[in-house]
Amino acid sequence: MATSVLVRRLAALSGASAVGAGAYGAHGFKNRDPDDYRFTLYETANKYHFYHSLALLGAAHCGRPLVAGGILLAGMGMFCGPLYHQALTGDPSLGKLAPVGGVAMIAGWLAMIL
User: Fold this and answer.
1) Of residues 56, 44, 63, the one with CA closest to residue 105
2) pLDDT per residue as tens digits for the range 60-81
3) Position 10 pLDDT exceeds 90
4) pTM to 2 decimals?
5) What end-to-end distance do the CA atoms of the chain give, in Å?
6) Mean pLDDT score across all residues of the chain
7) Helix (H, G, I), strand (E, B), or coil: what is residue 78?
8) d(CA 99, CA 114)
9) How sure is the predictor about 29, in pLDDT bands with cuts at 50, 70 and 90?
10) Three-state SS across 41-62?
């Protein structure tokens, strides 16, 4: 299987899971105060999950799809994962990964130049 096909399939799975997570958040937080910090964290995680799922589609067509896609996926996991986790559990213990994930997502965008 070509690398670009693999990255495109990962983008599709990521996008589908972002839609599912968004639907869960819309219903799971339905009766909560919109100013609740956990709700805000969830929305932020979901927004960046969507944006970077789309970025993965672009990564599938760059010169080094495995490099750019791998960095983007790692960044999404390290940024969105801790935010989703804290929003759903209230446990901030993974929060220190989020800035590293943010830097990785920036690096993933830059890797698409290669």
Assistant:
1) 56
2) 999 999 999 999 999 999 999 9
3) yes
4) 0.89
5) 21
6) 92
7) helix
8) 24
9) confident
10) HHHHHHHHHHHHHHHHHHHCCC
Residue type, 72: L
Q: Encoding tokens for residue 74? A: 């790692």
77-to-46, 74, 103 alpha-carbon distances in Å: 12, 5, 12
Give CA angle at 68 (67, 71), nearest 5°: 85
**Structural tokens at position 104:** 């990785």
For residue 8, CA distances in Å to 13, 45, 58, 68 come to 9, 21, 8, 12
CA distance 73 to 56: 8
Q: What's the rounded Cα separation, in Å, for the pair 11 and 53?
A: 5
The confidence band for 33, taking pLDDT boundaries of 50, 70 and 90, is confident
Instruction: Please give the DSSP secondary-structure letter assigned to residue 63.
Output: S
